[in-house]
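FW: tagging you since you asked about this chain on Friday. Here's the raw sequence from the shared folder, copied in full. Didn't touch anything.
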Amino acid sequence: MNKVDLVPGYQISPIIKGGWQLSAGHSLDRTIEDAAAVADTVAFVEAGISTLDFGDIYVGVEELIGRALKELQSRYGQSARNMVQLHTKYVPNEKSLSPYDPRDVSAIVNRSLGRLGVDQVDLVQFHWWNYEANHYLDAMRELFALKDEGKIRHIGITNFDTAKTKEFTDAGFKPASTQVQYSLLDRRVELSLGKYCIDNGIGIIAFGTVAGGFISERFLGASEPNEFATRSNVKYKLIIEDFGGWDLFQELLRVLDQIAKNHQSDIASISSAWTLQQPGVKAVIVGARNQDHLNRNLAIPNIVFTESELSAVNNVLAQSKVIEGDVYYLERYNARHRGIIHTNNN
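HL: got it, structure written out here
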């Protein structure tokens, strides 16, 4: 798979293997088999999906990635470290944001390095739960200090809105990237943050491109569900409601299904390809638990839509509602969305 520049001198795979699905805190009805997860991660890296996204609060995942690195080292020696791009997060607990101890940054980052078994992580993506606790610049300053020490190669942010992204940049802490929810169902990034990122050289990394698995053949023609297997299902069902409801969602799935057949692909891959081709987007995160769809994931960057296919998609999108606020606004301030989020996982 051809790599893309996230920033000059640093390349990532345009398809990123996400780690949230491997977290013990994600699934509501199943356990994660560690050995299989390690084997699958190694297979993705060997196939060319070499950028791995995870987080300090994804229970057990940094340790799994560390085991996958050891397996790669057993096969390829010390060159194994250069085969992968490691993207973790720094997400301090909401209860510790005010008062905030900046020493928390080095404690968490050093813990991530230990779990992974490396001296440097390629990207640390910073998330802050509560803007009203206004120490986020202090935390960003500490992250950049660790970058200067060589423990972090690049610093990104996740779920910060346009105003806060600009505040970081104006303070001399311009992030290399921003990771945001971006899909056919959720286009809040297009309202203002996307243009700011393009104008300022900040790469967009998109998650949620298949809405936690809702954008798939499994739900095409299905009745509206009221029971859910994962926290992602709960989260993205709310997004479907805000998009315009189950009937409009079904119309979108029917359009995507026809496009998928045109390309001998599947609905999820078509949805991810659409997001990947939007202005400013450098990569999309696929939440692959296993290797079942590896070949289709590899094909996502090569999907080329026809004008009629894009027109059919746009006809559905024109009927959708505008989701309220900048990126992550609902998740911060709307009780329906915020109520399903765990904010004290560290």
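FW: Residues 25-31 have pLDDT under 50 and may be disordered.
HL: agreed, and Residues 4-212+269-303 form a domain with the TIM Barrel fold (CATH 3.20.20.100).
FW: great, closing this out.
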